[in-house]
Specification:
By secondary structure, this protein is of the alpha+beta class. It contains four helices and three strands; from the N terminus they run H-H-E-H-H-E-E. The chain starts with a helix and ends with a strand.
Length: 118
């Protein structure tokens, strides 16, 4: 292959890669949305409250913002699995809400959480 052919092949490879990345992001968004809807359908948010040390740190990390689990975990200095456990159990006395949206910290489109009365 000559240089122009190599360049054309590289351009095609980049275009294919960009297309695959966009498709994978769309699929991930769709899967995340399905996960959120499934949680809602089975009533995961209606379980009784959580009372441990991580709960107050997680609530403090969220504040009045809408954040993804990763940002909550890093701000509260807890494991991501603990964030999910606490937020799923949290519901009384302070409701925990989750939906698909944009994290206010990292700006990613993912499942985001908000604690408080909305």
């Amino acid at each position: 292959m000559t240089v122009p052919q190599n360049l054309r092949q590289a351009e095609l490879n980049v275009a294919t890669a960009v297309s695959l990345v966009a498709e994978s992001r769309a699929l991930r968004s769709a899967a995340t949305w399905i996960k959120v809807r499934a949680r809602d359908a089975r009533g995961a948010r209606r379980l009784s409250g959580a009372s441990d040390d991580d709960t107050s740190r997680i609530e403090g990390a969220i504040g009045n913002r809408t954040l993804c689990g990763s940002c909550i975990a890093s701000k509260a200095a807890v494991l991501l699995s603990r964030v999910d456990d606490v937020l799923i159990r949290l519901g009384h006395p302070v409701p925990a809400h989750f939906t698909f949206g944009i994290c206010e910290e990292c700006r990613r489109a993912t499942v985001v959480h908000h604690v408080g009365w909305s």
